[in-house]
Structures are given as structure tokens and as C-alpha cells.
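hi! just following up on the protien thing from before. the input was this:
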Amino acid sequence: MATVGTAAAAAVVLTATPSFAGTDVTVSSYVCSNVACAYEAARATFISYGDDWKVCDEYADGHRAKMSVTYTNGNGSIVTSYLDATGGAGTCVTGGGTTNIPEGNRVTVKVWHQNGAGGTPEDVATGYGYA
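and the predicted 3d structure came back as:
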């Protein structure tokens, strides 16, 4: 009878340990004027499971879709990674799959579109998730 009581107490202690579930985030860059937003130009997604991210070019405007992912790594350094979708409207590019962001760390995701590699970022949008 004492063995059963010990096993039950151990099970309670083991299941009481909290874990952190990451938060995915999707951010869209819309081309807007003073009147209204006309169309979605770019979309970026951070996927907490596997620390992966993706950027998609959503509009045939001749621009590339670009994103950045900023986080604090295990050494305490702030890291920013960039990813471009340059294949035209409807193309997506993934990255980050080999990155290991410490659990619970905040991730800042920015997405925009720009004309060429050296172009100026336009219609920048920002979102936040957790690894």
C-alpha cells in the first residue's frame, strides 16, 4: 500500500512541471495610400515548433518580399536573420529550420516589399511570437 502512495505522489510532481508552448505569428504587408489599402504585397510567418519561418510574395508588382526575424540566442546576443522571396508573385521561401531559439524567447517578425536587393523597404509590418 505504501508503494502505491509513493507512485501517485511522484506522478503528481512530474505532471506539475510547467512547459512553455510557443506562439506562431503571421504578418502581412499591405500597399496602402491615404484612402485605403489596395492589396497584400508580402506575408511572413514564424512557426514556433521547429523555429522555422517563411516569406511569400503575394502580388505581381515587380518587387521582392522580404522578412526579418529578430531574437535573443542562447548566449544572450541579439540575432537578426533575413529572408527574401525573389521568384515573383505566388512564390514562398522558407528558412530558419536549423536555428534553435531558446524556448519562451520573444521573436520579432517584420515583413515588407522592396524594389530589388538594394531597394527601400516599403509598407513594413511587425508582429511578435514566442519560440
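Residues 4 and 122 are 65 Å apart (CA to CA).
The longest strand covers residues 37-47.
cheers
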